[in-house]
Specification:
The chain is α/β, with parallel strands linked by helices and about 550 residues long. The chain has a domain of about 120 residues: 2-Layer Sandwich (GMP Synthetase, Chain A, domain 3), CATH 3.30.300. Helix content is about 30%, strand content about 25%. The protein contains 17 helices and 25 strands. The strands form five sheets. The chain has a nine-stranded mixed sheet with strand order 2-1-11-10-12-13-14-15-16, with helices on both faces. Helix 3 links the parallel strand 3 and strand 4. Helix 1 packs antiparallel against helix 2. The structure holds adenosine monophosphate.
Amino acid sequence: MRALMQERQLLISTLIDHAALNHPTVEIVSRTCEGAEHRTDYKTVRSRALKLAKALIKLGVKDGDRVGSLAWNTHRHLELYYAVPGMGAVLNTVNPRLFAEQIEYVINHAQDNVLFFDITFAELITELRPRLLSTATFVVMTDRAHKPPGLDNCLCYEDLIEAEEDDYQWPQFEETRASSLCYTSGTTGNPKGVLYSHRSTVLHSFTACSMDGLQLSSQDSVLLIVPLFHVNAWGVPYASAMCGAKLVLPGPWLDGQSLFNLLRAERCSVSIGVPTVWLGLLKFIEENPHLISEKLTLARVLVGGSAAPRALIERLHHILGVTTIHAWGMSETSPLGTIGNLLPKHRSLPLDEQITIRAKQGRPIYGVEVHIADEQGERLPRDGKTAGHLKVRGPWVASGYFRGEGGEVLDADGWFATGDVASIDEDGYVQITDRSKDVIKSGGEWISSIDLENAAIAHHAVQEAAVIGLAHSRWQERPLLVVVARPGIEVTSEQILAFLSPRVAKWWLPDDVVFVKELPHTATGKLQKVQLREQFKTFVFSSDRPEAAPTRSDVNAATNNG
Ligand code: AMP
């Protein structure tokens, strides 16, 4: 029997319509690329998005066409988030941190008809333009007064808006239509496009607004540090309109001081970013201790994108007095997959034990099913110990990549292999131990590089740490710890190993520690381990050198093997 419920389609345009009607004066504050602060509200964002949609139609953009953006978090980029999908086209947010050749690849692969870009990328676009074969129109996202020289063949964003009225009616269409296209960072091979739908985006927004999700609500002022060019900024621009949260957009100004100033001035209650952003902010506050007494209204921070080390969660708690909500996801999961809220039974636990739970990546939210499997695809137990390949399934999980790149990505039952290795405990808390290509196999057992990195980062002299597995003649692979020391602090590898020794299983202890000035990162800020392994491919462990006396790994690994 068919139900008698209205079949209103879940369209992105309904989000901004709702916000403009019910939260019209809620502010969107941006630090623009030009440097100035800009204040607008949901009603104005909608009005300008409608004008922009009309302008796009005049530029020849049709249903399903791709419109590219190469831009920071500002009100103009937010307007594109509504204008482009709202009129039936697909917004391709391009990550400016990719190499120039990858940016060129992404824009050409997506076949962006129109490309919007911030003034900070004027030189890059001038250089790439002759090779962007599908792109007929280039729009620089500023007003005439700030248009950089040499861009005569580009349109000006504010001119497009000024020329239109906001009397456009959003078209109605099926919610399964594509709305946006984000490419993965492509650490091996070319980036691949994840194509989201209106339906997946709106469903995902409900989760972000739920109490066991990101808890976004009309009470919040959200400092959105995760970029609009990466996984739709975790869907937060859409979820914020759904619940009427105030949005604070930092533009290209992501240093500790700029973020601190925004948190204070805009009375932010929540902020969302990858771990390195928080490290930068905490460093700034520690270098300016008088600021600690400043009363921030910040209550919680949402961290994901890579593992939030326990030490970071502790510092956020002790220095800023905020609760950390640790989330896991990926471009292919829109990205929300698991979210680390505590259960009622955890409320009475000592802080230390609560932090242990918060350091896990959280529990699956409704909409994303997860399980772990072994090499043969057999399901593994949810015992919090056994690690296996993490698989996910759900209405905002990708079913394939744009233009079929990468071939079939789902198994026969519709599960997507994330490429992450994880354990799941009895309560459903997922703990990511590695990317599957980064796990260290020592004497037939797996060593978690993420656990070792998190343990190392807790040492006061360690600014950043990466652990990679390198060949070992006896144990197949052993871990090498690569450390960036905090400036001005002397530390030796022996001291770091002594610090780690009581904190990790004996046979996990890295065989050597080496110091470097900096570690390689991907365009989305993750450790670039492929490159690091390449850098150290000729490294021979001290325990593996011919003259080596009884070795640490012999002792360590022997402990493992009984
Ligand atoms: P991306 O598609 O660029 O967002 O990258 C997704 C990948 O980032 C995941 O597959 C994980 O390897 C990693 N990742 C995301 N969130 C976390 C987290 N909280 N802890 C550990 N790794 C994470």
